Request: fold
Amino acid sequence: MKQNFTVIAETRADEGKGASRRLRRLGKVPAVIYGGKDKALSVSVSHNEMWKALKVEAFYSHILTLTLDGQSQQVVLKDLQRHPVDETLLHIDFQRILADQILRRAVPLHFKGADVAPGVKIGGGIVEHHLNQVDVECLPKDLPEYLEIDLSGLELNDAVHLSQIKLPEGVSLAELKHGNDQSVVVIHLPRAAKEEETAAPASAEVPAANQKAPDAKAAAAAPKAAPKKK
Reply:
């Protein structure tokens, strides 16, 4: 079941670095709403409310309901700036969406069944993730919260590629349109196990530890056998 997220915004008239600092001291975050058929608007949102919402993975890929001056509109989180040290929110961009226009969004991948995959349980392999999210294209109503990948049937050295991800109706993967069917996840042996497997076996002709190799000079000085008389 999809979650619903609501963002409460307030119009702000003052702009600039000084105005933004004053907003942050009041526990608010400067933000911008743009896109769609309307002009860009400068707004502010509650830092605490946004901080809590951003701890939920689905918030990043969901259609959000933004309420401004008593009116609601559909938006997505387009960009987010944090302080490099304490990660407090500095600025947020929201993009309006239109119901009839294709939307491109990054959607997280959820993996299941790794613990029972034959390549792990029997083959002793490990799971290596190449991607944790993918870009999808779809109408806003079809935007998935996440995409699930089942690893339970994977053998050792098996991989899942983009083209093998099960997609909801109306959803496509942006990378596949460009012919980039890259690997998403693979099960392989740990590096140490690979090195043991590929190491050359010891030669069977190695002399015993106590056996000395023949001395070349002694061999040359040894008398040669006389030729046999006919």
Q: What stands out?
A: Residues 203-213, 216-223 have pLDDT under 50 and may be disordered.
